[in-house]
Amino acid sequence: MDLVPSHVRSQSANRVKSKAPAKIQITAEQLLREAWERKEHAVPIPKQQIADSEELLDYQRNERKQYEMRIVRNRSHSPLWIRYARWEEEQNEFVRARSIWERAIDNDYRNPVIWLNYAEMEMRHRFINHARNVFDRAVALLPRVDQIWLKYAHMEEMLGQLTLARLVYQRWMKWFPENSAYFAFVRFELRHGRSDNARKVYEQLVNVHPTSHSYVKYAKFEERQEELARARHVFERATEALSTSQLAPPFFLSFAKFEERQKQMKRARAIYQYATGEFSETESPELHQSFTNFEKRHGEREALDSLLSSKKRNSYEAILDKSPTEYDTWFDLLQLEESASSADRIRKVYERAVSNSPPVATKPSWSRYIYIWISYAVWEELACENLQAAIKVYKRCIDRVPKRHRKFSFGKLWMYYAQAEVRNKNLPAARKIYGTGLGVLPEKHSLYERYIELELSLGEFDRVRKIYENWLTRNPTYEPAFLALADLELRLGETHRARSVLELATSIEELSSSTNLWEKLADVLKLEDESSAVRRFEGYISSKPHSAVWLAYIKMMEELHAANDAIRRVYERSVNALREEAIARKDNSEQWREDAFDMANKWLHWEENSVDDASDKEGYVARAKKLLPRKVKKVRKGVAGGEEYWQVVFREEETSVEGVGNKLLEAAKRWKRHQTNGDS
């Protein structure tokens, strides 16, 4: 240990000093590639040269010993038996080879590979009887292995023993194999020109395997033999012998194409129509597409339209089967049925549609559903000319709405129901429906309007006034109702009533600044008395100094052809009044400021377009400009980064701000002088 240097003995010597990655990185792929390139090639084993019979016997003895030892170790490994037998075959030791094959069969007789290789050895060396013996034993032990039967029959056919080959096929058919076995038998008979025998094989096939595929193969065989009547008979036999569940779409497709090739278009169309009725487009798109192409080639326009309608109908039905509340799809289906179907069928589709009510009791989810009911009623009335049936549909729909319309309802439904009763000349029922609908939907203005239209058409003005009274009682801030009632009173010559209605409307806080109401009131006042109209507006202004009142007042004076000085005084009073109101309302003055600004602009525009003398006009325009407020950009605090906005500022406010600024400037100057005198 003393001879070992201390730095080698130390524990730190074994540690990695640098854990940084190497400058040159070597990938695993590169390592594998270099290993493959640098591998050492194995030294080839020299072939053994056998010089005489003794060496041959010694070689054979060693090989047999090795094979036997391997078989003892792994007796169930069939490839080992096959290699052993083939090696004996290469040594031309056929007896030994047969012995090995027999031992392999005794070990595993269910392995068809052993039987096939055994028979192939016998065939390679022309031991035909031995091969027949092997095949006979094989098919007796393994009758369900098709490959053995095929090899057996093929061997006899290659030897020219057609009778024996046919006998092999017939023995095979007694085991009722799969369809492929019968097809192989048919090909054998056809190769040797025995179509009658092939027909008999097909008869066996359809008896043993009665499927649509078997019948189609049989019919195509007859068609290739130009036995068209027989081919059609085979197709017809299939439709009689097989149930509907066994007849697949390819069968009908083949049958229809066969008739089309024979120029039997009516037969082909009938087959297509039946098949497309049995199988939907999702089940067999190829069949439906083939029918469409057939109609495009040979059909008339009506038949093609009917086919396309059928395809659309099937697609809609598929969607509705998955989602019965898909009401847009129901509308598409109903539109299709109304254009191409009978009344009974359309009615059945409508009944199916309305039977699927929405699962959720909310108005948006019920809207499309209610439209289906309305469409149903309209169809009954217009297409079927059955008004009573339409009324019954409306009644059923009214009863279907959940919780008797307490949660939600539909104005159009009540409206159409009432109009149907009007067309039925049942006015009491119509009035009752309108009244019930308004009780359920007091905020539905269109329902009031239709009810009023009905009573107006009947000349029932007292009823109309009651309806308006009910409408305004439940909706006291709805401006169009007041205007409509005022128009009605004017048409009836009741100017006093119209003025009272409008005055009532303008007395409501929410409507007191409505321009339409004040202008309408001005028109009514002009009809009564021009002088009293001015007095009344003066009273309105004193109580409600809104810009709408001033504008209506000015418009009325212009229409009454008042003097410019009178109009000018009203403009100036309105600007001053709005300015004072805006200054008085410190917190909520934005709208009043905007109104004052707009009024001043209108005044200035009116002065610029007035017809006064040029000398006076300049003074009036200057006066209007002097009272015109100014818009100033300001920044609103409390918002991130500040928010810029425009504010209307009056001249009084600007003067007061300038006065405060001047006082501050004077105080600053006095303080500066005081500081200067103190330092000196």
TrEMBL record:
GO terms for cellular component: post-mRNA release spliceosomal complex; precatalytic spliceosome; Prp19 complex; U2-type catalytic step 2 spliceosome. Residues 65-210 form the Pre-mRNA-splicing factor Syf1-like N-terminal HAT-repeats domain. InterPro entries: HAT (IPR003107), HAT_PRP39_C (IPR059164), HAT_Syf1-like_N (IPR055433), HAT_Syf1_CNRKL1_C (IPR055430), Syf1-like (IPR045075), TPR-like_helical_dom_sf (IPR011990). It is found in: Nucleus. Involved in pre-mRNA splicing and cell cycle progression. Required for the spliceosome assembly and initiation of the DNA replication. The lineage of its organism: Eukaryota, Rhodophyta, Florideophyceae, Rhodymeniophycidae, Gracilariales. One of its GO terms (biological process) is spliceosomal complex assembly. Belongs to the crooked-neck family. Residues 1-20 are annotated as: Disordered. It comes from the Eukaryota. Keywords: mRNA processing, mRNA splicing, Nucleus, Repeat, Spliceosome. The keyword Hydrolase does not apply. The keyword Secreted does not apply. Residues 341-469 form the Pre-mRNA-splicing factor Syf1/CRNKL1-like C-terminal HAT-repeats domain. This is Crooked neck-like protein 1. SMART domains: HAT.
